[in-house]
Amino acid sequence: MIKRIQLGLLLSLFLVPLTMAQTGTLTGTVTDQRTNEPIPGANILVQELERGAATDIDGNYSITNIPYGTYNLRVTFIGYRPITQQVNISAETQTQNFELREDVLGMQELVVTGQGTGVERQRLSSNVTSISARQIDRLPTVQLDQLLQGNIPNSQIRASSGSPGQASLIRGRGVVSALTATTPVIYIDGVRVDNTTGFALNRGTGGAQSSAIADIPVENIERIEFVSGGAATTQFGSDAANGVIQIFTKTGVQGRTDFSLQSSIGAEFATKDFLKYDRSGDILFTPGVTQEYRLAASGGTETFTYSFSGSMRGSQGVVQPGGDDAVRHNLRGSFAADLSPVVRYSGSFGFTSHEFSRNISANFSGSIFDIETGSFGNPDEWTDEEFETNKQFIRTYVGLHDITEDIKRFQTSQTLNFRFREGLTARAVVGVDFRNSNQFFRESNAYLIARGFEPEGTTDQGNLTQTDRNFLGLTIEASARHEASINDFSFITNVGAQLFRYDDLQTSIFSSGLPDGSRNAQTGQDRTGSNFERTVANYGLYALENIGYRDTYFLELGIRADQNTAFGAEVDTQVYPKIGVIYNVSNEGFFRDLVSSRYISNLRFRANLGYAGNFPTPFSNEVLAGVGGYLGQSYIDFGTPGDVNLKPERTKTFEVGGDIAFYDDRFNFEITYFESETRDALFNAPFARSVGLGTALQNLGLIQNSGIEIAGNFNVLRTRDATVNLRASFNTLTNEVVDNGDSAPFNVGGFAFLGSFVDEGFPVGYFRGNRMVFDDAGNVSEIIPNDNLGKPLPDYFGNIGLNADYRGLTLTVTADWQLGAQAVWPDELLRFFAGLGDERTDPVPAGASFFDFANLYVEDADFLKVRLISLNYAVPTRFTEGLFRRVSVGATITNPLNFTSTAFDPEVTGAGIAQGQGGVGVGGFSYRQQSANRQLYGTVRIDF
């Protein structure tokens, strides 16, 4: 018996290593099917084992300790079609390479916006637009709005000015609110960030407003998702009616550390296309120098990855002799680590320092555009002596402008991802966005003397305004996800809780009687101050269900319950539901029997109905007294009337559409029709005069928007050496205030003689003023008071893009356009006052009030603008082998071409950009503003 036991033990000693040896290692490379270039960061999953790996910087992967057997391997990467392949592991080391094909439609791409966690696009009833890292690399831009411009097919991104740090108007499906800006909610790695255009105590420089969007760092971005409204925004509740932008940063890929260094240098030129006088440009502008340096690194192991990037950018500016210089520093770091088999941690940190100077513009005295609007007569008629005299005078006071802004911004996102078992995951996110901005505006004694406001020798009449804003936003979110399959059915369930709280503290001080050389408010003879404080919390619960049948039929259900400290005391929890359906016709067997994929490779239909909201201005629900001071005494008067029933405006959106692709995805279209209706629209409307109160925020209105969105992508050439892709979009828009709750029309921008108004039966922000009508003989036949003179919202808009590759050479072009909008040109009115008006006012009788012919300064504002042309060349590796991994050189020009129906720039606006902090702004007033500059620069990038 003992001998048998000994024999058994001896055999087991041999059998154990034999058993342990029955595992293998799978290695290989993942490459692009067309270019054969390696794809770093691709995921390879052994589905039966729920284990896998990611490719390193060279596209290589390795999965160890795989028991012998047959497995299904699934390979995925954003922007490419996933593939599943069966592999038999029967050796210690086995090689399996994969080629991925670019996914033009992106139906299998995982998107987060609208579902809370990653879901294949084919399961979504909303059209989520994605910008991939590959596209971002083609667009050498420094601001988020510039990155979006020309790449979001169903939205307009319009630069209000060419000055540093300026706000852009981002507008998707019309204007859904007469209270709040059209700017979408913005998230970075799951953390909401400040997106304010202007702020309460903003000093301004005549129409110029700083934007928090301008300093969101674009470093290290993996991809961007954008949805312009509808059911996909229901998850975000009472502040998402304008859409959602989600930014995801890189976390690195396993493998050796990869370093890259990029340097750009070039020239910046003022856009003189829209100047009235040639000599204006000679006096005001000179070419500037711009340069930028970027350093990036990424790498990691199977359990830890990291990515880092930093940049420095300096712009000398184009205004003579200075005043629009800018310096920006960006840092962004992200990393991820497996803390255990169940928990994975990821964190990202971002820091931005943005310092810039500005000049006075628009309606302020001393604007650099005084020369354009008649203050000095007609510059083109000056003698050479007058030219030199006026040039010296203008450059002297422009050079004495002392307007600066210094912004410091820090963002962080900390995430724990839990994978409890197959199909059951959870996520917890905590993040902060902190932004400090310091505005400084000084009129020195020298400036006041140069302008003629003070006599020579004045030394104690300077003044300054200094404004500080500190914004702290806190995001906390917890969510769980469950996936299950039962026969032909698949279920994805998401539940979560979300909290967003922000503290906004602003202080402003005005000091007058400053002595020479002082930039300190304490040295002034008189000082006054003001402050602004606001704390708001928005919190809610959501539940989302996505049900699929045979990957062909899908049903989306969702609900969000919301509370907000801005709601009235009598307002219950707000509930936002959604429902969506999807039918992937091309997945039907009968369809494949009838139509070859060579002709129609994809066809699906989708429809959804969803609700989102915009919460009211905080504290408008409270009855507040106004407190002030006068002649050394304090007083109390009527403040906010308050409304215990004040609640968010609710936007209901219905959309229906389809996606179709022809000839193996070479030509594809996305078509959507939408209708949105904002009920309980928040109007700052006046009370009846008998009440004795002014205006108050009230739930009164009904606003409707509708339109068609068509986006197309055309792969006109696709070979191993070359590709040519064209993309274009066409959108229609109809906007109307259907009901104003019997309130009087109210102003949301513009001027006394011609403003942007809200009134029943008209678009939000339509131009209202007196219209002078002439008969056939040129005589005044009628003056129509308070007439509809046009609208700033276009009937049609879209964008155009070109991506072309030939071996190592790539060409990128972006452009956008609009038709059917109008804009106001107040500059021409000022020239009329100075006796320099053009022929439009010839029939106006002498002595007529300019209030009576406001219509003469409204023009059609159609345009086509080419935003960017970029050419890049990847140097063949045979020339750099042994020195660098990759080298590329490129040249870029921004804003090269403008085609407009007007003599002025129909895009910029010196009035109507926003009403107060985060207020509605529709633009449309091209008033003494600098157009976006042209930039021409070269770039060298080296990957080590």
Relevant CATH superfamily of the largest domain: TonB-dependent receptor, beta-barrel domain
Percent in helix:
under 10%
CATH architecture of the largest domain: Beta Barrel
Q: Whole-number radius of gyration? A: 31 Å
Summarize the main sheet. Answer: 22 strands, antiparallel, barrel
Class inferred from helices and paired strands:
mainly beta
Shape: globular
Strand content: over 45%
Distance between the termini: 68 Å
CATH hierarchy, class of the largest domain? Mainly Beta
**Mean of residue pLDDT?**
88
- pLDDT < 50 runs, ≥5 residues: 9-20
Count of discrete domains: 2
What name is given to the CATH topology of the largest domain? Maltoporin, Chain A
Quickly count the helices: 8
Description:
- The chain is built from eight helices and 48 strands.
- The chain is globular and about 95 Å long.
- With 944 residues, it is mainly beta.
- The relative contact order is 0.12.
- Helix content is 8%, strand content 51%.
- A hairpin with a 4-residue loop joins strand 2 (43-46) and strand 3.
- The chain has two domains: 2-100, Immunoglobulin-like; 110-733 and 793-821 and 861-943, Maltoporin, Chain A.
- It has a 22-stranded antiparallel β-barrel.
- Residues 9-20 have low confidence and may be disordered.
What's the short story on this structure?
By secondary structure, this protein is mainly β. Helices cover 8% and strands 51% of the residues.
What's the structural blueprint in terms of helices and strands?
Layout: H1 2-20, E1 23-32, E2 43-46, E3 51-54, E4 60-67, E5 69-76, E6 83-89, E7 93-95, E8 98-100, E9 110-111, E10 119-120, E11 129-132, H2 133-138, H3 144-148, E12 156-159, E13 168-171, E14 185-188, E15 191-192, E16 221-227, E17 244-249, E18 255-269, H4 278-284, E19 288-300, E20 304-315, E21 326-338, E22 343-357, H5 384-399, E23 402-421, E24 424-443, H6 445-450, E25 462-486, E26 489-514, E27 526-549, E28 553-564, E29 574-584, H7 589-594, E30 600-614, E31 625-630, E32 633-638, E33 649-662, E34 667-686, E35 695-718, E36 722-732, E37 734-739, E38 746-750, E39 754-758, E40 766-774, E41 780-790, E42 796-806, E43 809-819, E44 822-824, H8 826-833, E45 858-860, E46 863-875, E47 886-900, E48 934-943
Parallel strand pairs: 1-7, 1-8, 14-17
Antiparallel strand pairs: 1-4, 2-3, 2-5, 5-6, 9-10, 11-16, 12-13, 14-15, 16-17, 18-19, 18-48, 19-20, 20-21, 21-22, 22-23, 23-24, 24-25, 25-26, 26-27, 27-28, 28-29, 29-30, 30-33, 31-32, 33-34, 34-35, 35-36, 35-37, 36-42, 38-39, 39-40, 40-41, 42-43, 43-46, 44-45, 46-47, 47-48
